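Closing statement on the S-adenosylmethionine sub-project.
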Amino acid sequence: MPTLGNPKGTIEILKKYNFNFQKRFGQNFLIDSNILAKIVESAEVTKEDFVLEIGPGIGTMTQYLAESAREVVAVEIDKSLIPILGDTLSSYDNVTVINEDILKVDIERLVQEKNQGKPIKVVANLPYYITTPIIMGLFESHVPLKSITIMVQKEVADRMQVGPGTKDYGALSLAVQYYARPEVIAYVSPACFIPKPNVGSAVIRLDRYEKPPVETEDEAFLFAVIKAAFNQRRKTLANGLANARELGITRQQAEEALLQMELSPSIRGEALTLREFADLSNILYRKIK
Ligand code: SAM
């Protein structure tokens, strides 16, 4: 049974190894067994599953995952945690720890080797300094994925799941919602970690769509349009698009496309749904390509 996931067990291990927290690696270890159980339960991990864990720390969540999954690979950047993980995970024969930067791991190869190329589950209490590159890297590389269940900064979870007309709505909301269905599972207080982070946290589950909910002529062009739309939030969408030189769109072309969609030429990007962005980018793509 898990021995960590509480303040006492965690402090004992940290003392035994004289561990020094590295701020640059976003190290905040979970010490709340209820939250840990909730993460694993909401990820619906079963004995059929291969799970990739990003940043196991001292192996707290890894123990829970090892109990529930068929096999776990945990990727940890901090080499001083590797002997600790050897200790805390010694009773599990279904866990492999890789000492590497997750952004450099060939996840596609891992999925082939460990899960015969079938979609995997990712579960993690993420290092907050690289949340977006990790999530977008997983989606954009088209690694076979079933779901991503992760602890992130509360504001980031909110941004991932909101729709148009709210202040948190932006490029991240649209990118995540293009690839996955987001659901916030729980909000988590700083008191559930050692050391306490100075932000609130949330567990969010992202269920990867087999096929995106909207059709695009060109995925990269859709994302370039979305990026341009939110680069200058206070400007109208038509101005934002015209100012993004790399798109090669004039303000007039943008306004015509909006009129064709029966939208106001002075509308702002934050008012458009993902479907409207897809329609707009398709109209513009046909105009200029
Ligand atoms: N999973 C543990 C827990 O819940 O207690 C630790 C979570 S802590 C928020 C984030 C972990 O990610 C740390 O162990 C940190 O060293 C590791 N980490 C940071 N950057 C990483 C990277 N680029 N690749 C892999 N692991 C990383």
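The domain at 219-288 is CATH 1.10.8.100 (Helicase, Ruva Protein; domain 3). With this model delivered, the sub-project is considered complete and its resources will be redirected to Aim 3.
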